[in-house]
Amino acid sequence: MHSEFAIEARGLSKQFGELRAVSSLDLDVPRGEIYGFLGPNGSGKSTTIRMLCGLLTPTEGSATVLDTDVPENSKDLKPKIGYMTQRFSLFGDMTVFENLQFIAEIYSYPFADRSTRIGELLDRYDLVAQRNQLAGTMSGGERQRLALACAVLHHPELLLLDEPTSAVDPQSRRDFWENLFRLAGGGTTILVSTHYMDEAERCHRLAILDHGVKVADGTPQELQNRTGMHVLEVIADDPYAAQGAIHELEAVASVTQLGVRLRVLIPDSHEHPRELVEHALAARNLKATTRLTAATLEDVFVAVTMKPRKT
Amino acid sequence: MMKPLYRIMAIVKKEVRQLRRDRLTFGMVVGLPVIQMLLFGYAINTDVRNLRTAISDQAGTHLARQFVAELRQTQVVDIIEFVETAEELEQLLRGGKISIGVVIPPDFDRRVSDQSRSAVQLLVDGTDPTILGVANQLKTMPIGFDSAGHAAASQQLLEVRPFYNPERRTPVNIIPGLMGVILTMTMILFTAVAIVRERERGNLELLINTPLSSTELMVGKVIPYIVIGMLQLALILAVGRLLFDVPVRGSIADLYLAASAFVAANLSLGLLISTAAKTQFQAMQMMVFVLLPSILLSGFMFPFDGMPTLAKYIGEVLPNTHFIRLTRGIMLRDATLPELLPDLFYLIGFTLVAMIVAAMRFSKRLD
């Protein structure tokens, strides 16, 4: 039975003692797409990925990955997935070539094509110069490229990447995503967790996790279109004072300062958000200009992970 | 399918590569057995010599001086002081300055010829049973000399001397056992940290997400160290031969066969430890927990037959106990393996059980 989804999970939960790390997670990841998990540290991203590849046993719920039930048949799943751990997990005391060779041997990559494949990967992931360098002495970006090369060596149908870019510079991150798009273009399904908004925006589809709960999912565009909030940008002479004044308004869900600008989220049940804020500022004699603007993914994130306001 | 075999070979190759780059561990493979052999071969010596001794010679006669000279010649005592009274000897004993005090009474000459009375009193620090034992042997040292002046006396003297004969060498008895202790230590250590180290470095999360099975990982990790164990055995035998002149009376092949079983047993035990420990430090502690009984309860330090029943039961569980029986049999008594089968079977059984439990305990899960 061939499902249109690479990953299907229903009610997936994981309890660690008192802590409910993941709570009743439903997930449908279409094949050939880059699916993002966006969430702060401790939101259950890694735990979910580990449950999906059979490393952790769910406390409740079930998951089917590449038409394989996990964790029951995760043994059959292993040859079909590539997994990149959050922490660099290759062998620091072996060279780039030796690491690739080891992975090729472990996956029983056809012997005749082995050196061709390794050469191809060294080329593609710009590791030719580091071929004989010990992996432990490489930079964060180089390690990450090696880890990706090792994860895709055996042509997996599904790539699970657990915060792959948390230890690399912006340029390396851009290159890394270029590689992911190329892989997705070749038909590989990619599940990637991140806490960077710009990376989340690049995904075809994403789920926002907060304290183990999926609080929103959809394409980035969909998410931005249905925040349920007016987004008001305020440019004030004294942004700090303005922030204080706006924050006192009960209708305001959140105020975030970005330099001289303030981003104000007000539930869209409110009909005149602009007037509301302008009045409050005028009452305090604070000079400011305001304008309504489109929600960014960051606004979405703030809106969906917001705690109910205490007054 | 040859895949499992290839995967095992991949692990073996990886282990060898990593070992070759880890200079300290690589040095330990060679250095540890040699240094320990030298250290223990020379230091562990049950021939007690040079016990610090003080003498209170209250007789002062020619015969008494001759007795002291005779005592000194045994080399068992090292006479460091002469004092006046027995009380002074007691003080020195209490202060730990001497181990033996010798009181030569004023009527020493007369007592020597009177066989019914003891001529000399030995004050001994009884806190160390070994010293007490040596003193008891000293008691039998004949004091014949010229005054009794008979052939019988000198013949008696000859009877005693072989006891202190330098030809009675401890290393011959120690080294077969030492071999077991050194192999226990290095082999358990290597594998005990093997999996914990990969867990700590994060490699394990990668490995368990590959098609590699638990058993393949375990077997792959053990194979290189069996070779290292054989290498260490050769080193120990060579050092034993060259420096301590320890013979191998039985067959070398038998010895290597017994050692392979023993090395495998220790490696499996190390793997078992590795699956139980969360950190390398914990693994080390568990290794020491096994090592101490392997030294004290295996018959290496104390004769196995003389131990309390409970200690014997514990000793029977330890691989080293059985290996020491095998090596002492093969090396010193020219026994053949068929005569020592129960011990060999025990080691093989131990290996299988430990391996199975280790592979079962090591699940390919993180929870």
List the helices and strands and how they pair.
The complex is a heterodimer of chains A (311) and B (367).
Chain A: E1 5-16, E2 19-30, E3 34-38, H1 45-52, E4 60-65, E5 68-70, H2 74-77, E6 81-84, H3 96-106, H4 111-124, H5 140-152, E7 158-162, H6 170-185, E8 189-194, H7 197-202, E9 205-210, E10 213-218, H8 220-225, E11 229-236, H9 239-247, E12 254-258, E13 261-267, H10 273-283, E14 288-293, H11 297-305
Parallel strand pairs in A: 3-8, 3-9, 6-7, 7-8
Antiparallel strand pairs in A: 1-2, 1-4, 4-5, 9-10, 11-13, 11-14, 12-13
Chain B: H1 3-21, H2 23-43, E1 51-57, H3 62-73, E2 77-83, H4 86-94, E3 100-104, H5 108-113, E4 121-124, H6 129-139, H7 145-148, H8 151-160, H9 171-201, H10 203-207, H11 214-244, H12 252-276, H13 280-296, H14 309-317, H15 319-332, H16 341-361
Parallel strand pairs in B: 1-2, 1-3
Antiparallel strand pairs in B: 3-4
Helix pairs in contact in B: 1-11, 2-9, 2-11, 9-11, 9-12, 9-13, 9-15, 11-12, 12-13, 12-15, 12-16, 15-16
